[in-house]
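About this split. The held-out portion is used to measure sequence recovery: a designer receives only the structure tokens and must propose an amino acid at every position. Recovery is the fraction of positions where the proposal matches the reference. Here is one held-out target exactly as it appears in the evaluation file.
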């Protein structure tokens, strides 16, 4: 049986209470073949979607939801009509089972989901109707579409190879200037200062002198030069970075930390899966930090780590060369043997390109600043993912594609008259 729609699962993740609204005057919102979608059906579903998404008072969300809700109701009607044509019956037990799967996914107690919807003052019948449409479609796809889906050995092998290679992950090297905003009334003034700073930096002004001057007028904070995955960047900063080239500076961007200027220093991409399942022996150097460390202190320690990186000692040496020059630091050195496959996606790109005796760039972790020295590497072919698991994954992908084609055919052949 296919999964319930992700939208429905997302809708019931959390929801603020909503007051019960009066039903709208009954009229025809749409006709789908010989079925009528009333204006009450439409208004109830709008209340359900907006209420469970927590955006009932957001005019933009309301506008975006109008077309989406109507399309959902039309598709739902087509699904139920087609299920009826195949004599598929949806029982109360089917609805309860569907609710149970959502409850389990969210960690709710069994049998509490419908009561939760009612407690929010939202239309339970509309919620059950949506569940009924999803269950009907799942049964229909299992009966009609599933039998026509085949997966060849070549498709499985290509999928195994694709998964083993991983996907390309883009990383950006960025440096930022943050202009904190303590009072919302100051946003425009601080934005103006940020625009002035950006203009002068683009014109070639000396950054250190310029920022020293502006620090006398407004608080400034400096984000450390760092590599970050594009998908982890704040959405508004990410959008701004897409519009500039390496070396460019974004316009001022409002973020929870304040108004930011971000310079794109460099970018690179790598596979999130290792090219081989190499076994590696690493010398791990950690500059310990306590819980009270400040962002400035982290930046200073990163600079110290870069100096230590020049004197890591040998792989057989229990310590770091030149460590006597860094008195007062708590430095741990230990040895780790592992495989690239077992490394986290954040650390692996730092180790994978290293040659024996090379040291990775310093990186911050909860317990301190880390560096890794490659002492030994034994390459082994990367293992392909489990064949049966991949076959099932490919089957589900093809099933979803065929189900979507089936629904498009139903839309194309139906008589649909939307009147809103």
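Reference sequence for scoring:
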């Amino acid at each position: 049986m296919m999964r319930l729609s992700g939208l429905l699962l997302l809708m019931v993740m959390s929801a603020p209470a909503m007051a019960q609204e009066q039903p709208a005057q009954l009229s025809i919102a749409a006709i789908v073949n010989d079925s009528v979608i009333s204006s009450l059906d439409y208004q109830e579903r709008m209340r359900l979607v907006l209420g469970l998404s927590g955006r009932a008072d957001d005019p933009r969300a309301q506008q975006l939801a109008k077309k989406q809700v109507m399309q959902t109701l039309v598709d739902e009607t087509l699904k139920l009509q087609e299920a009826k044509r195949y004599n598929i019956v949806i029982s109360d037990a089917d609805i309860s089972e569907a609710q149970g799967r959502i409850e389990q996914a969210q960690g709710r107690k069994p049998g509490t989901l419908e009561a939760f919807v009612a407690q929010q003052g939202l239309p339970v019948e509309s919620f059950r109707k949506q569940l009924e449409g999803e269950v009907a479609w799942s049964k229909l796809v299992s009966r009609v579409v599933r039998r026509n889906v085949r997966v060849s050995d070549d498709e499985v092998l290509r999928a195994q190879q694709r998964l083993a290679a991983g996907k390309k992950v883009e990383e950006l090297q960025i440096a930022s200037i943050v202009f904190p905003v303590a009072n919302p009334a100051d946003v425009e003034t601080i934005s103006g200062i940020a625009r002035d700073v950006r203009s002068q930096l683009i014109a070639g002004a000396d950054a250190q002198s310029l920022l020293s001057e502006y620090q006398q007028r407004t608080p400034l904070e400096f984000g450390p030069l760092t590599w970050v995955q594009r998908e982890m960047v704040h959405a508004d900063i990410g959008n701004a970075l897409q519009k500039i080239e390496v070396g460019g500076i974004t316009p001022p961007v409002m973020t929870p930390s304040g108004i930011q200027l971000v310079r794109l220093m460099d970018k690179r991409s790598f596979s999130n899966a290792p090219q081989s399942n190499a076994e590696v022996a690493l010398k791990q150097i950690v500059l310990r930090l306590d819980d009270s460390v400040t962002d400035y202190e982290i930046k200073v320690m990163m600079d110290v780590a870069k100096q230590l990186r020049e004197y890591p000692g040998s792989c057989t040496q229990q310590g770091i060369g030149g460590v006597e020059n860094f008195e007062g630091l708590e430095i741990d050195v230990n040895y780790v043997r592992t495989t690239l496959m077992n490394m986290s996606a954040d650390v692996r790109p730092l180790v994978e390109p290293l040659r024996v005796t090379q040291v990775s760039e310093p990186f911050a972790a909860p317990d301190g600043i880390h560096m890794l020295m490659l002492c030994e590497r034994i390459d082994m072919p990367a293992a392909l993912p489990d064949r049966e698991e991949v076959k099932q994954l490919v089957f589900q992908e093809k099933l979803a594609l065929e189900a979507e084609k089936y629904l498009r055919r139903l839309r194309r052949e139906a008589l649909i008259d939307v009147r809103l």
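Annotator remark: The radius of gyration is 29 Å.
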